[in-house]
Q: What sequence folds into this?
């Protein structure tokens, strides 16, 4: 479904309520035709392929955003400098995920193969603050690290429109389950979006927000603190990372613990929260044991 936001800017609403492996995309119909992300479902993809796109922007390296890069061989691909290496090379992508042992690597590769993922080149590396000019539309690149190191939001000042990518204001909350994720950076990035005070927010996996935006952003941010508090309470009893990961603090009981990707991400996310608590000197660690 194509939703116009202004004369030159359109949201391509993804199927299945934009849930993984789909994402909403932002189409710029201007002198330079561009789209931010491209895992938007077949119907939207067919539309984009008829549009002779000049530029594909990747908000970050995750497969559910960059999946269709190879479908546009004539378009340039732009992504932030810090995520570009993971788009260009599968082994770097695996490293960013944190898939280290052969079993995890094999699991990652077989999954990516099953969804038809391919490496792609990145023609232009973006930096925080870059102004991308498409003719009438100008987008400012806002580095919003945390989800991934080079995750970017894009701001269009005239409409007050923020494409917030995976700062998706979902009920699940911020996702920081990869080795390259960073909780402190994520918090800073959500605060950066709050400071912008946008009039419209287009998220990758959720709705288009036009009301109560700051409230939604604060609620989303607080989910980090709530999970951290639950973890902190568990640490009354000295525990290993492995035993804490079994509590399903991050994913909750909605997700199946035996699903291998969730299991890996749960552990990494808990490790990220522990790292933050250690940095604040709120908890202690000796050997494999954490406590407070
Ligand atoms: Zn992502």
A:
């Amino acid at each position: 479904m194509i939703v116009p936001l202004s004369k030159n800017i359109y949201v391509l609403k993804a199927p299945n309520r934009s849930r993984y492996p789909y994402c909403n995309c932002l189409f710029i119909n201007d002198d330079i035709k561009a789209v931010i992300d491209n895992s938007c479902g077949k119907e939207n993809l067919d539309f984009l392929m008829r549009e002779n796109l000049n530029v594909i922007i990747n908000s970050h390296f995750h497969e559910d955003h960059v999946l269709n890069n190879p479908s546009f061989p004539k378009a340039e691909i732009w992504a932030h400098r810090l995520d570009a290496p993971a788009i260009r090379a599968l082994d770097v992508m695996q490293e960013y995920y944190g898939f280290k042992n052969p079993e995890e690597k094999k699991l990652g590769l077989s999954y990516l193969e099953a969804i038809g993922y391919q490496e792609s080149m990145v023609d232009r590396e973006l930096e925080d603050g870059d102004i991308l000019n498409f003719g009438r539309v100008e987008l400012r690149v806002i580095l919003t690290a945390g989800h991934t190191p080079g995750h970017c939001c894009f701001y269009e000042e005239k409409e007050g429109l923020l494409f917030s990518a995976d700062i998706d204001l979902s009920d699940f909350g911020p996702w920081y389950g990869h080795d390259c994720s960073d909780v402190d950076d994520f918090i800073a990035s959500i605060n950066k979006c709050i400071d912008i005070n946008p009039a419209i927010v287009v998220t990758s996996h959720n709705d288009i927000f036009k009301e109560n935006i700051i409230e939604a952003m604060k609620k989303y941010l607080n989910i980090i603190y709530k999970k951290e508090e639950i973890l902190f309470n568990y640490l009354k009893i000295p525990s290993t990372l492995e035993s804490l990961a079994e509590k399903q603090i991050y994913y909750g009981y909605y997700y199946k613990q035996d699903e291998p990707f969730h299991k890996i991400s749960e552990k990494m996310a808990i490790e990220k929260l522990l790292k933050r608590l250690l940095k604040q000197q709120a908890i202690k660690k000796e050997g494999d044991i954490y406590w407070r």
Remarks:
- The two ends are 50 Å apart (CA to CA).
- Residues 213-234 form the longest helix (22 residues).
- Residues 224-284 form one domain.
- Residues 88 and 274 are 31 Å apart (CA to CA).
